[in-house]
Write a structure and sequence with these properties.
Its main location: membrane. The chain is mostly helical and 526 residues long. Helices cover 79% and strands 0% of the residues. It has three domains: 149 residues, no CATH class; 232 residues, no CATH class; 106 residues, Receptor-associated Protein (Up-down Bundle), CATH 1.20.81. The protein has 20 helices and no strands. α7 packs antiparallel against α8, α11 runs parallel beside α15 and α17 runs antiparallel to α19.
Length: 526
Amino acid sequence: MNYSPEVYLSLVLMIAVLTIPIAALLLVAAIVFKLLPLAIFSVLPALVFGMGLSYPRLMASSRASSLDEELPFMIGYVTVLASGGVSPIMTLKRLSKVDLYPKSAMEARRILMQIDVFSNDPISALEFASRYNPNRVFADFFGGYTSVLKTGGDVIDYMQNKLRDVFAYRALKVKSAADTIGTFAESYISIAVILGIGLFVLFAVQAILGSASGAGGGSAGIQRIILLTTVFNPLVSALFIYITHSIQPKEPTRNLRPYYFFAGGLALIPVALFLPLHISFVYKLAAGLTASTLPASVVSIREARRKSSAERMIPSFVRDIAEVRKTGLAPEKCIEQVSTRNYGGLSPIVQSMASQLSWGVPLRQVLSTVRTKTKSWLTQTVLFLLSEVVEVGGGTPEMLGNLADFVEKISQIEREKRSQLRPYVFIPYFGAVMIVITTVLMVYFLTSPIVTGGGFNPFASNLGNPASITVPMLAGAVFTSWIMGFVSGKMGEGSVEAGFKHAAILAAVSGIVMFLATVFFHIPGV
């Protein structure tokens, strides 16, 4: 914020005071017209004042958490360049113009503003940043750096030790996030599946009994089923996706291409529903939901494979360059030398780099061009660091070796993150299967005229149109399974776009399960 504490507090007080007449008018209206819900707004001034006081803390927390994701790369960038004799202030000047690290670039500009605008010396500017930055690791890094400078210690050794500490902190954070997601996954199953099935059974029995008695209660039960499956379950899933997103380590940039395909694929749902085919609405819905996510699934799977293949081989690529550089070849020639090796999904990028370098294109321009050819933020980051190491630090064997060590450690942490999150993919699958099977069995036993013991079900025999009840129930189960696919992708693979394929699979499996159920027993409306 660009306000001093005194000015900000004055603004909050002024806005809170201005809301007092509004709250008074609403309270009078609530009393006169007997509109009790309006009486809630009588606490509006206190609410505004409380929100105003909590806003700076929320913004500071958001600033710290967003910087946390870029911190290992930012500190690694400063450390690698410092090993080549580049001062942190010069590094911060270059960092302030980097779009790969938007939050770190903003913090670098804050430090440079203290030097260029307020005429502070670099050490005072770094001390100011360490004192007032809400991110503890960032503040500790630059606070310790200024202390080492003042005492005449080994700056490079300090930075390398802090980088190891940051890696350990990152690994601990990944493990903690995985444990927390596991707790929330259990909570999600409890709310969305167990509570959802309980409410589903309650509303379904109400609909069937109300319809059988002829008292008009069936329509109310059906409406509650529709609200449960189209409002309650999606809201619960969206809430858990949001909570998981706030917990998981994430990249600063996002690939929106699968979402565009998903938005276009949603048009296939009404097309499937209104096709002039003599099949049940349930099958049409399952086909429409599956088809709507298939294009996005294909795009997401292809890009995820390319990204995974490139990220898996990028440490080997940097290590090979560092080893070849020890022979005395220039960095450009090192890249041309290793371009004949197989780097999997990274090979097209490496070969493109070698081709452009052989034509005499400068290395920085080459790396800037090929960065746009990959959707992997980690690969883009490594290529950027490689260009900085060569351009600013001269690409010495020591700097390239430090860069290779840094990339290998980052890659190891990313692999650990994926392996720890992967088991949570299957938890929503179990929930979706439970919902579908429970719904099918419940529909069968409540609508079948024959009951255990050879008698007849009096409620089923009085149902005039059982399909009007069973179709909303089964369609709701299919839709809920489809929604759970997105939660599966977010919990187990770290992104909603990874859930497109799980949503398509669960919608298709739900339709297949219901089709197989009709082979063994009759289900009205299917």
